[in-house]
Description:
2 domains
Amino acid sequence: MLEAAGVRLRVRPVDLDETPAAGEPPEDFARRMAVEKAEAGVAARRPDDPRWVLASDTVVTVDGAILGKPADGAEALAMLGQLRGRTHTVLTAFALASPGRAPQVAHTASAVRFADFDAPAAEAYVASGEPMDKAGAYGVQGGGGQFVDAVDGSYDGVIGLPLAETLEALVEVGALPAFASDVARRLAIVRGRIAAAAQAAGRRAEDIVLVGASKAQPVERLQAALDAGLRDLGENYVQEWRDKADALGDAPRWHFIGHLQRNKAKYVAGRVHLIHGVDSVALGEALAKRAGETPVRVLVQVNIGDEDTKSGVAAEGLGELLGGLDAVDGLRVDGLMAVPPPDGLVATRRRFDALRALRDAHARPDRPLPSLSMGMSDDFPAAIACGATHVRVGTALFGPRG
């Protein structure tokens, strides 16, 4: 996560007693452990190591009690049972230390809501072995993510290191150069979160395309993102895209996201890298008419939540639509996209899994459908866990619109 955010580092493990003192409040315990780890890192520092040592500690609390790492499967099941259907607090403290300077310490507190789940789900998760190395017997980016319905606060803090706060602290002490812009800082954070989610899922971060969802964002913010190294931008409205394309030139690789009217197809075909949102053969034919020598690359939009207000083909109609699009010369269907309703992370993950299952069911050797465009600012780590190849991030990257 830190490396993807632009921090050069070396990892040095420390071995400390991580037992809370009698009556020690969870916040004090997390901060003390972060400081002790940082001080141990300074003591073990080698002459060629970086000057600054960063250490962190995460504590899961429920009803004021600390849930540590479970000793065995039975204890893991008991901890998960305590969290089931409830909101608990995850405290993550981090400390920065260097030779001759007192450690600087800070912490974040996040409220995490668990969904209600059945015993077989918890037993299967415990049988995987993952909970045995996790505070509170779960990892939000691993199999334990299936239980997490919402996070209010630092998502990265629940992972184990609040990235935004850590980067700010590193800049303040001079361990990291100041970011050129707020957008550059946000891009570093999003890249770090993508890398962490990819690693947890056993995937490579470089295989996931970050599309900056730039609808209603001023050109200046888009330029700042391009200057910081972002390549892909996505727009929802043809006229807005045309204006921004004229202003930004050839620097971005453009994506068109969402419903596209057939009479506007002539403007985007051949000029954008990928169209996220074809939902009819007629639209596919309108795009193909402007294809030229290179087929127009598209994703089929699936109405994965069966919402009356959203575009997209119903799941049961996907096969027929794909068959119709296969017959359109000048069109290449690369995969599927969806925008699930905001029903909480558990329901969203189920819909992401459903989209991936649809892709797998309809893929063929001659039409592998490799791309899955799903996940936005609030849920892209979950989308990556479920197989997303493209995540469309707006607010987390550019800030509020306007």
